[in-house]
Amino acid sequence: MCGIAGLIHFGRNSRENMERMKARMAHRGPDADGTWLSDDGEVCLGHQRLSILDLSEAGAQPMTSRSGRSVIVYNGEIYNYRELRDRLLREKKVPAFRSTSDTEVLLEGIEAYGTEETLRQCKGMFAFAVFDRESGTLTLARDRIGEKPLYCGFVGSAFVFASDVGSIAALDGFRGEVDRGVLDIYFTHGYIPAPYSIYRGIRKLRPGTILRLARPYTEQTLTESVYWSVTESALKGRQNSFKGTRTEASEELERLLREAIRGQMIADVPVGAFLSAGIDSSTVVSLMQAESAGRVRTFTIGMEDAKYNEADAARAIAAHLGTDHTELTISDRDARAVIPLLPHMFSEPFADSSQIPTYLVSRMTRRYVTVSLSGDAGDELFCGYRSYASVERIWGKLSRVPYGLRSPAGHLLGRTPASAEDVKAIKARLLTASCPEEVYRQSYETDPLTERIAADHPGYPYAYTETGRDVLGEPNRDAMLMDMRMYHPDDILVKVDRTAMAVSLESRIPMLDRDVVEFAWTLPVDYLRGTDGAGVRTGKLVLRDVLYRHVPKELMDRPKKGFSVPVSRWLKEPELRPWAEGLLDPSALARQDLLDPVTVRRIWEDYTERGIWRVQIWYILMFLQWMESEAVLGNV
Fold this sequence. Notes:
Elements: E1 2-8, H1 14-24, E2 32-37, E3 43-49, E4 63-64, E5 70-78, H2 81-90, H3 102-113, H4 115-121, E6 124-132, E7 137-142, E8 151-155, E9 158-162, H5 165-169, H6 183-189, E10 202-204, E11 209-213, E12 222-226, H7 230-239, H8 246-264, E13 271-274, H9 279-291, E14 297-303, H10 311-321, E15 324-330, H11 332-336, H12 342-346, H13 355-366, E16 371-373, H14 378-382, H15 386-398, H16 403-415, H17 423-431, H18 436-442, H19 475-501, E17 506-508, H20 514-520, H21 525-528, E18 530-531, E19 537-538, H22 541-547, H23 553-556, H24 567-570, H25 577-583, H26 586-592, H27 597-610, H28 616-630
Parallel strand pairs: 13-14, 13-16, 14-15, 16-17
Antiparallel strand pairs: 1-3, 1-9, 2-3, 4-5, 5-6, 6-7, 7-11, 8-9, 8-10, 11-12, 18-19
Helix pairs in contact: 2-3, 3-4, 7-20, 8-9, 8-20, 8-22, 9-22, 13-19, 15-18, 15-19, 16-17
């Protein structure tokens, strides 16, 4: 795991600016750094290294190919790099390798087979840039699901890119203008989805995408292509549904997960795993221990507040599996102390409050290992969220009434006065839904105040779907696809990457292995959600089947508490309320001209005076804290 950056056609101060870019993301790669400048000074590439494979200088970056034609900066891991290396040697594309790193294999593969063909072969997480010195073309690419970040855009006449948008903000000439068009999406969801960023003119490269920039390095010479799409993967899975029994499905899933975990346990540094006591992380740890000759290192944090504490359950699972388990109990004070660190950690507004415990478990884990596997993506791939069942239930009722009848009724009902908590307001929106995707989206948009937080501006459209409505023809699957397109890459994976990288910890996610993802889309819905042996309707059935071969069901039969912190309580307490009141000062909001002071004050007073909690309170505070921390007030 590393940090990458680049400047193209920046000018005489390229090297000086590159050093600032690298310094801003030094936490992503504290072991070494490097800079490469082309002979004509037009292209400057920078790298911060977190050494995982081949810890020697032979694995250093920026790295030049054997032919001298290509130069790469790369962030991530190619888990099947040995297979690609063997092919390159077998086909005599490369006489020998100078290192044992996956970086060199990726670079030589691209030079031998081209970017698209190489990426079709690769299984891993990555964001990289390759400069072809012969053609003068820069190629950027990002992994299939979006585990690794990559921001890019033009600053003046220069094209720039970086793993951390804060590195771009550090450049000479960067205006730091907030993109008002993203604010409605941010205040609805608490994060900014690709291709947008908080800064005007700077974009996130979408997952599964290749971007090329050719001479003379202008907007007109940018081309973009997609080498893998989660929507296409889901459609193919739908067309090629798994035909075996549920037992056979769980056996195949276990085989694929074991294969993924074996590849992701390869490292030249210590490896461990997060264990939250949920189905997903327990499955990953179970299979890690089954694949390991020694005791796997596992890590859990506990909360003093019993409502949020799962440490006892995690300890019992670890004891059953025989892992080398470490846990840390944190207090409210420990968690609140993280809040001032968040703007620098994320570099743009981000407000999933589970970022706090995720950072704390990452910080504790980094004391013992450099790589940690997690169970993320189990809910989205195997139908775990309860909201999916709600979409199925609500759409089952709505679809019985012709859209032409219920939509006008919904619009009429929506015109009558209703508070945010009024069931009437929610029903009005749901009646206008024309497909399961809209039912799911409406669940985030039931409060009309949310749409008035940002001051008047033209907003961008939502980025949920690529191919239209009712893509997969089944409510659970359509909701899962929406999450895999936006929520998972732009919330969950951002949270995991930024919090782990803040302490120089590499996080790996076996369930996002290409073969696991593509297999998951082939599974019939009744293998994912249905009635278990006790007659309880639940999700992740096939994943549970895998887990229960290794962990007794009795250890898992308890309510899931989630990985969260009580921000709604904290904001009424003396430690945080003055901080919140200071950020929400009406005169400061009026000077910024980004948020509507009246709406913001209404939301805050609904909470403090009437006890109405909206998660948008945290979204607003995280946005304002970022504004204050990044000192962008003069640039909006």
